[in-house]
Amino acid sequence: MSRFSLVIFCFLFVSTIVRATDVEYCDDNKEYEVKVQVVNILPYPIVRGEPATFSISANTDNVISRGKLVIEVSYFGWHIHSETHDLCDETKCPVAVGDFLVAHSQVLPGYTPHGSYSLKMKMVDGHKKELTCIKFSFEIGLVSSLAAYI
Q1: Does the model's pTM come out above 0.70?
Q2: What CATH number has the domain bearing residue 18?
């Protein structure tokens, strides 16, 4: 295998297991204190019964000492799941001024239907002030994207 072929293979392999997804703010007219740059999902598509990690790269101009992540998941437009996480369990607190990463890993049950989902995530501070609100779509597949390479 030539070096060029190896580079192309590695690119295709990695691009199928990690995906930077398109992110929208819940309110385009609102000036959020926390700006989200990108959401990466690993693996992509998500495989039920296996760990999935959502990594959110963000930026803030203010120190965040504590807070919550409020997550709502919809399937074909129907609300199916809500959960709340302590921000400090998902990133290092206090969150310093500048760039930071919020990462959450979870194993979806094996009976989770495959298809398109949408997720809405609000980040609130310790006083329940909304710092950001984003929404994005993701896919749950039938089999691992790695299976094609085995």
Answers
A1: yes
A2: 2.60.40.770
